């Protein structure tokens, strides 16, 4: 089996990696407004494998006139999906990632989200940015079966974040734009991720998005406990 | 350039990734026995890219009768080096990593250390183990220019650890076999790694070893501060 086929397989496998665990105890204690009153909802932690978002126009350039994204697998957030379509991402010096999944629906701008491992492999120095904040980021070339798109910017490492609805935000005592911490307890691989941006709105489901490097660093597949913690409150220690 | 050549290049690049930063303040405060008296030594944090250790016998099988490892690049710990030699690591279902660096000197057993990203790509479910503790771990096939070795066990994800000498250990208030925490502060990617095993002896230099997934998860290359912290002491928060 070729190296290309290996990469392809690992993308497909990793795009569905996700755990759902209940959070016990400690986070609730740190939030006086909910102590002992409402239990925390189950927490979904999802690993986003490398992927891209495309505009309607770029879908047609890459996959042919009139082409639309074809949903293959629904994502946890309602209305979002992994498409059947993939593109090749080409970086400088002719290095490339052969099979990068397209996520739908389409967006007003095209964007490629890589883990650092991917970006090192591709030879692109992808900055850590929140989705949509792509000004001044590196570009790349996207190759589809019917055409090629040259992006002048849009290659990022997506910064870790947590989606939630406003009721969840109230429960945690945070608001949209705040930062939280995510602690993943797993055998010999426990990690606390700081700098987790809260993206709260009226309808999102509670879900953390981390990338494959982060998911592998904390051995998410073997995790025994997850905790969503406020960045500062209740913490008297050196963190 | 082929995908194989890309992987090769990323190994070579990543084998030298390392940062050295001074630790300011907080760790010292947590250790009463050193407060205000001795400052913490500079801390070297090294990313160990995927690599293998070989026995003398396996070096001869893979590279030919009489072959010895040839030092190419010294590692931070005295006497250790990245060898010129690399091997191909083949997993089940004929997936492979074409170029895995051999580290020297030779050892009484052969062992392959992968990040989870590597092990997923290879199709091997590598358990998190400390070096040398390989009983019951998966095996693999090593292919060299002159021969092939089938390992019945020895494929692991190396558990994160910190080398230090006994004087450093005293300074931190820990002993060989204890666990510490490593906090890496970097832009939008700050991480606290728990479960960091202390390997203290008479002569080692102070150095943390993490793997490429961990190094990429915390954006080590962009780190602005590193702290080595005791696992429990001085911590009143929910960690």
**Average pLDDT score of chain A:** 86
Class from helix and strand fractions of chain A: alpha/beta
- How do the helices and strands follow one another from N- to C-terminus of chain A? HEHEEHEEEEHEEEEEHEEEHE
Work out the helicity level of chain A: 10-25%
Give a short account of the largest sheet of chain A: 9 strands, mixed
- Any low-confidence stretches of chain A, pLDDT <50, length ≥5? 1-13, 25-37, 233-239
- Beta content of chain A: 35-45%
User: What is the multimeric organization of the chains shown?
Assistant: homodimer
Please report the two chains with the greatest interface, counting residues with C-beta closer than 8 angstroms to the partner's C-beta. Answer: A-B, 55 and 54 residues
What does this structure look like?
The structure is a homodimer of 239-residue chains. The first copy, chain A, contains six helices and 16 strands. Chain A is of the alpha/beta class. In chain A, the strands form two sheets. In chain A, strands 3, 4, 5, 6, 7, 8, 9, 10 and 11 form a nine-stranded mixed sheet that branches. The interface between A and B is large, with 55 and 54 residues. Strand 14 (191-201) of chain A pairs antiparallel with strand 14 (191-201) of chain B, so a sheet runs across the interface.
Outline:
The structure is a homodimer of 239-residue chains. With 239 residues, the first copy, chain A, is α/β, with parallel strands linked by helices. Chain A contains 6 helices and 16 strands.
